């Protein structure tokens, strides 16, 4: 069923990414402009990641008619843990073009799940979009929902990407002004109107507007590269101590907003505390990445940490993973930082050079 109402009115909310979910959505990489040499190397990497994910949960891979068989063969698709769906797309950004899933219920109960079909215009449409042919991308969310018999909300009157929103699961959403107020998204809507739209569509109580994302981010600075909830009311923020780095002032401005928000969330959401993620540099190019929402994570000597990082740097101190998997399930890892424990979702994969965004699909915890 396609709903024209709002998730909030129907009692649905956007969950935190650390909550129980059914599986992961990926898209087979074939677009020549993004994946050179017919995506030969990218397909090998995607396959390795997909197979690893499938050991723990369902993996849905979207592919067009010309590449379904190729994807099935390389993935060893069994129709159970790895499922290849014939859904064409223009590129491979599942996080941004896939449905946003909203749920009704708590982790201890059975979830009722619906999708949201936002409008997608390649991060800016005619104004500053990254490619012109995005019609198939725009249809991907609704097509996927239909293959899963998942009810969804029609939000085609509002441009939004999955990477531009982040939820703590308890009523607080984080976004960036640079992205959601960009002229290529919803230029006829005011900040107040966009805030209300997010509250209604994500079942939220409050929206925190950070000024910036990551310097020179081609998505108009998605929030998923700069700040992420790691638990209700706890965030990590990309950071650099170098005052001459353009990101320094941007992250500082974000931190000030978070500090102000921390005192106003007690009744509207969760109390907020922030931790900073130390910046590392990729071969001389400024690259500030969030540990839990980005495509690349670095440690000393420019070494890639992933797919599930064992060592991070927060405020210049080592942050080590203490157990391989958190005891409450397969979807979080436990970290120890300065005597404190926190948890990070395991389905954000780190890749070197190649960006890959994964979209969590939330389903009832007890499906048997």
Compact overview of the structure:
With 368 residues, the chain is α/β, with parallel strands linked by helices. The chain is built from 8 helices and 20 strands. Strand 5 and strand 6 form a beta hairpin.
Write the layout of secondary structure elements.
Blueprint: E1 2-3, E2 23-27, H1 40-54, E3 58-63, H2 68-75, E4 82-86, H3 94-97, E5 100-104, E6 112-119, H4 125-128, H5 135-147, E7 152-159, E8 166-167, E9 172-176, H6 177-180, H7 191-202, E10 206-210, E11 227-231, E12 234-239, H8 246-262, E13 273-278, E14 280-282, E15 285-287, E16 311-314, E17 317-323, E18 332-337, E19 340-345, E20 359-361
Parallel strand pairs: 1-7, 2-3, 3-4, 6-7, 9-10, 12-13
Antiparallel strand pairs: 2-20, 5-6, 8-9, 11-12, 14-15, 16-17, 17-18, 18-19
Task: List its traits.
27% strand; single chain; four-stranded mixed beta sheet; alpha/beta; 368 residues
How do the strands of the widest beta sheet line up side by side?
1-7-6-5
Largest sheet, in brief, is:
4 strands, mixed
Coarse shape = globular
DSSP helix fraction = 10-25%
The number of distinct β-strands equals 20
Oligomer: single chain
N-end to C-end Cα span: 24 Å
Pattern of helices and strands:
EEHEHEHEEHHEEEHHEEEHEEEEEEEE
Strand content: 25-35%
Number of helices: 8
The pLDDT mean sits at 76
């Amino acid at each position: 069923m396609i709903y024209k109402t709002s998730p909030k009115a129907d009692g649905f909310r956007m969950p935190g990414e650390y909550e129980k979910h059914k599986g992961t959505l990926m898209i087979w990489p074939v677009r020549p402009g993004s994946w050179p040499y017919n995506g030969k190397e990218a397909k090998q990497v995607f396959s390795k990641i997909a197979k690893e994910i499938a050991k723990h949960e369902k993996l849905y891979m979207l592919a067009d008619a010309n590449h379904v068989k190729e994807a099935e063969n390389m993935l060893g698709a069994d129709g159970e843990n790895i499922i290849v769906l014939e859904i064409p797309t223009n590129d491979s950004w599942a996080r941004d073009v896939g449905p946003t899933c909203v749920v009704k219920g708590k982790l201890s109960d059975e979830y009722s799940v619906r999708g949201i079909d936002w409008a997608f215009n390649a991060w800016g449409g005619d104004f500053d979009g990254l490619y012109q042919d995005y019609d198939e991308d725009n249809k991907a969310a609704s097509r996927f929902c239909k293959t899963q018999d998942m009810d969804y909300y029609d939000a085609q009157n509002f441009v939004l990407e999955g990477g531009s929103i982040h939820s703590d699961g308890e009523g607080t959403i984080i976004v960036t002004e640079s992205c959601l107020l960009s002229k290529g998204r919803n230029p006829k809507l005011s900040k107040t109107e966009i805030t209300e739209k997010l509250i209604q569509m994500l079942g939220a109580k409050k929206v925190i507007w950070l000024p910036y994302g990551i310097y020179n981010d081609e998505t108009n600075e998605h929030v998923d590269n700069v700040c992420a909830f790691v638990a209700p009311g706890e965030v990590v923020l990309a950071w650099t101590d170098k005052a001459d780095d353009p990101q320094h002032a941007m992250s500082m401005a974000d931190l000030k907003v978070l500090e102000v928000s921390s005192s106003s969330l007690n009744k509207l959401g969760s109390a907020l505390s922030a931790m900073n993620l130390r910046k590392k540099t990729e071969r001389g190019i400024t690259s500030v990445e969030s540990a839990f929402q980005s495509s690349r994570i670095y440690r000393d000597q420019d070494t890639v940490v992933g797919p599930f990082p064992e060592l991070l740097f927060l405020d210049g101190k080592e942050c080590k993973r203490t157990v391989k998997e958190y005891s409450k399930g397969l979807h979080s890892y436990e970290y120890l930082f300065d005597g404190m424990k926190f948890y990070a979702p395991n389905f954000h994969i780190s890749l070197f050079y190649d960006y890959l965004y994964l979209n969590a699909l939330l389903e009832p915890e007890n499906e048997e």
